[in-house]
Amino acid sequence: MRGDFGTRSTTAGKIVFGTNRTKRIKALIHWLMDFYRISGKLSIVGLNETSFQAKLRLAVTRASIRKTLSAQALPQAADPGQLKSEKQWKEY
Prior knowledge:
The structure is a single chain. The protein is mainly α and 92 residues long. Helix content is 60%, strand content 0%. It is built from 3 helices and no strands. α2 crosses α3 (49-78). The longest helix has 30 residues, at 49-78. The mean pLDDT is 80.
């Protein structure tokens, strides 16, 4: 996203986001996806700047944990183990 808009010409809509803004946009996307995952109702009522930033940090932390857990789970689940012989398979 940042690279695409940053490489455009000024007349084609060049936008320079910066690193912090890019991180905030990604955090916002993670926060929105958390609501989607739990089928929650999206609302910012009752949030101020401090509490909203805390929610965004929590969403980024959750995304990092999900990424770590999925990276750990996939190789183990995909490994069928060794065969005893060509005619005799291990029982699962």
